[in-house]
Amino acid sequence: MRRFISPTVAAVLLAALTISFAVAQNPKDKQDPAAATPAPAPAAAAVAPANDEPIVTKMRVQDYKETPYFYSSTETTLNQIGQVVPETLPKLFAAIKENNVEVTGPMIFVYHGATQDRDKPFKLEIGFTVAPGAKEAGDFKVRDLEPFHCASVIYSGPITQVGVAYQGLFTELFGAGLQPTGETREMYLYWESPESPNNVQVIMAGVN
After folding, report:
1. I need a surface site. Which of 51, 108, 153, 182 has the fewest CB within 10 A?
2. What values do phi and psi take at 10, rounded to 5?
């Protein structure tokens, strides 16, 4: 079975969207120890990211195909989402198991109309892509997740620094003259824990 995202991510998931860029440290100049007198420092070479430093790819404009989606839908706010998500995830996992729902892809969060206003309500959908023919189960519905024309980046790092990805994505898309539609999606490709540098997710913003 695929690795599911831990419910503990919920408390920090949306708050992390406002976290600013981490500041990179400049490499220190080095001196040749064999020189009799101090010599000019060599030009600094490019430094690879540290193993625990978040990584964000360049923006790409992509089109995702329509796919069946097993999900729950709720209205929430940024201030309330920390309670909503951990209540929803265990129920989602149980519904999938009890109803033998065939999951075909990663977990996807869909945000409709979320803004930086922490008290403004928006619609949140939480679910998985599933095989055709999946049936509804209790509070969990099935629909075709619409084709999605979006600007996207891939983020690898702890969830507390995912704001780096959002900031980079929106900076690039506005710079390219694109306009967001108000729908954002997060696709969780790999998950270990909230603080793991190995987590991988795709951040997608619908664009015109």
Report:
1. 51
2. -60, -40
Q: Please state whether beta strands 148-156 and 60-64 pair in parallel, antiparallel, or not at all (unpaired).
A: antiparallel
Token output for 71: 């999900």
Structural contact between residues 83 and 74, judged by C-beta atoms closer than 8 angstroms: no
Residue bearing tokens 């198991």: 97
What pLDDT does 47 receive? 53
Q: What is the pLDDT of residue 202?
A: 98
The answer to whether 121 and 76 have CB atoms below 8 angstroms apart is yes
CA–centroid distance for 18 within its chain: 13
pLDDT of 50: 66
Among 1.10.3720.10, 3.20.80.10, 3.40.50.720, 3.30.1330.10, name the CATH number for the domain at 7-18+55-207. 3.20.80.10
Q: Is 13 exposed, middle or buried (0-12, 13-18, 19+ CB in 10 A)?
A: buried
pLDDT of the residue at 93: 97
Q: Percent of the chain at pLDDT above 90?
A: 69
Q: What is the distance between the alpha carbons of residues 39 and 117, in angstroms, rounded to a whole number?
A: 55
